[in-house]
Amino acid sequence: MPGHPDYQRLLTTIYHQEPDRVPLAELGIDKPIKEQFLGRPVRDLQDEVAFWAGAGYDYLYLRPEYEYLGAPAVVASGTAIAREASASDHATKTISITQPGPVQTLADLETYPWPDPGTVDCSNLEEAATVLPAGMGIISGVGGIFTRTWMILGYEHFCYSLADNPALVARVFEGVGRIQCEVLRRVVKLPRVFAIWYGDDLGYTEGLLASPKVLRQHLFPWMEELASIAHQAGMPFILHSDGKLWQILDDLVALGLDALHPIEPKAMDINEVKRRYGDRLALFGNIDLSYTLTRGTPAEVRAEVRQRIRDLAPGGGYAVGSSNSVTYYVPPENFQALREATFEYGVYPIRL
User: Fold this and answer.
1) Domain 7-345 has what CATH class?
2) In whole angstroms, what is the distance from residue 102 CA to residue 99 CA?
3) Where are the domains of the chain?
C-alpha cells in the first residue's frame, strides 16, 4: 500500500479535484474477507481499524448502534428483495416481500416502539475516534428512511397501502424521517467524522422499488434535510442505492447529493452517468460483483479496475470499489487484485 491513510484524499475526489491517487471506497466488507486479509479474527474495533487502514482505505465506515422493530424474516426463495446494505451484512441475504411488518394500521402506530433519538448509542463512534491512526477519518450516517418505512409495514403491505391507506404510509415515513434526522444531527458533531454515507436501496436492476411520485412526496424532503445537516457541518452527502435510478437522478442532484454508490453495472452504464452527471456527482464503485469480483480471475479484476480508472478518474470524481460491497464469497485474490490495481493504475495524473 502506498503511503498512509488520508481522508482528504476522498474529500478531494468527491469535490472533483485530483488527489495523489484514486481512493478506494466501500460501504461494507464482509468479516471473512477482513479476517483473510489480516490473518486473524476480527474481534473488536481495533481489529476493524487495522483492516481498513491496512487495506488502504482512508476511512472507517461506522454508524450508531440502534434499529427499528420490523425487519421481515430472511428467506431464500424468489419472493424476496435485496436487503439494505449495512456495515456488517452485505448483499448476502434476502428478505420476504410478503411477510407483514409490525404496523398494519394507524392504530398500530400508537404502540409501535420508536427508537429514542436522544438515547441512541454513539459510543462506538466515540471509541473509534480514539483509536484511528493519524490521517484516517470516520464516515458515518443513518440507515435508509425508505427501507425502514417499508420494513415496518412489510413491503407488500406498503405497496397496497400507497393506494388503500396513504395516511398510514405518510405517518411511518414521517416517524422514521424525523428520528433519522435527529440522530444525524448528533452524528455530525462527533470527532473525526468527515462525511455522511446514507444507505437506502431505492431500486433494482430493472427499475425503482416505488414510483418517483411516491419518493418525491415522502422520501426526498427527508433526504434533502439529511443532506442539509451534512452540508451545514461541512460534510459531503453520499448515497448508496442499488438499481436503476435514471428516473430520479435529477431529483437526487437537486436535493444535495454529492456522490453516488455503487452504480450497479446491470442497471446503469457508469460511463453514461459520468457523461450526464459527472460534473455534479462523484461516482464510487461499479467493479462488477456479479461476475468479475466473484467468478472472474485476478487478471480480469485488474483489467476492469484499469478501465474504470482510465474512463472515470481524470479530473477527480471517481473512487474504486465493488458494485455493492465486498461479500464473503469474493475470492481473496480478487480483493487483492482490486486493491493492487487501484494503487498501480490510480496515480495522478492518470496516464493509461
Assistant:
1) alpha beta
2) 10
3) 7-345
Residue 303 cell numbers, joined: 483489467
- Model confidence at 93, pLDDT cuts 50, 70, 90, reads low
In the numeric block, which cell numbers belong to residue 212? 418517483
DSSP state of 143: B
In order of 23, 148, 202, 239, 264, the CA distances from 206 in angstroms are 29, 22, 11, 19, 11
Q: Are 97 and 156 in contact (CB under 8 A)?
A: yes
User: What would the DSSP string read from start to end of 231-251?
Assistant: HHTT--EEEE--S--GGGHHH
Handedness of CA 24, 28, 34, 36 (dihedral sign): negative
Burial readout 248-284 (b: 16 or more C-beta within 10 A, e: otherwise): bbebbeebbbbbbbbbbbebbebbebbeebbebbbbb
pLDDT tens-place string over residues 130-144: 999 999 999 999 999
SS3 at position 61: strand
Higher pLDDT, 347 or 79: 347
The letter for the amino acid at 118 is G
